[in-house]
Design a protein that fits this description.
The protein is mainly beta. It contains one helix and six strands. The protein has one domain: OB fold (Dihydrolipoamide Acetyltransferase, E2P) (Beta Barrel). The chain has a five-stranded mixed beta barrel. The longest helix is centred in the middle third of the chain and has 8 residues. GO terms for molecular function: single-stranded DNA binding.
Length: about 100
Amino acid sequence: MNNCTLAISISQQPELRYTANGDKIGQTVGEFYSPHHNDKENPSSPSPIKVVAWGERLADQLFNLQIGQQCIITGRLSTHSIERPEGFKEKKAELVVERIFAV
């Protein structure tokens, strides 16, 4: 079962858009730290992840978050391959929201 829970900080203003059949989609970018980010020898920077919310309620909840706000998001991870101009494919992960808990 693909289930993921992340504590993230919102790093990009959330956006709302609609599909061709009228479904509401909210999306933003959040940042999270690895469990080892306090390592004094090798400090790590936060990792960005795209967050996507499908449906009226979840999209509105996501849209109401502000840049810098902390939240806990539960959902599933999804990956997409993107063809780069350099001639190779890059895999990007996104978190598809099931629940949002503002902190």
